[in-house]
Amino acid sequence: MSTPEKLRGRFGLAAAGLVVWVIWIVVLPAFASRPAMSKYLDRMDQAGIDASAMFYTELEMMPELIWRIEGRK
User: Fold this and answer.
1) Which of 1, 34, 46, 53 could form a disulfide with 58 if both were Cys (CB 3.0 to 4.6 A apart)?
2) Whole-structure pTM over 0.70, yes or no?
3) Residue 19 to residue 39: CA distance in whole angstroms
4) Which of 14-18, 33-37, 49-53 is the least confident region?
């Protein structure tokens, strides 16, 4: 691989990293502060839903919800 190709690859990687950084640091927080999204996030918190859970079965509310869905009260 020649030097210009290496530089182009490194520039592309840096540009992609910058795009991800801007989305993570600027766009997502701005989106989360919008009234509709803020309401939605508050509702999720009140329901005890952890958006960072890897699986829904990790949520504290899941056993009760499964019982309700399956008709076992």
Assistant:
1) 53
2) no
3) 27
4) 49-53
* Cβ contact 47:60 at 8 Å: no
**What are the angstrom distances between the C-alpha of 68 and each of 49, 51, 57?**
17, 21, 15
Cα–Cα distance, 51 to 67 (Å, whole number):
22
Distance of alpha carbon 67 from its chain centroid, rounded? 28
Torsional class of 31: left (φ above 0), alpha (ψ -120 to 50), beta (otherwise): alpha
Alpha helices in 1-73 (DSSP H): 3-22, 28-32, 35-46, 62-69
Total residues found in the chain within this entry: 73
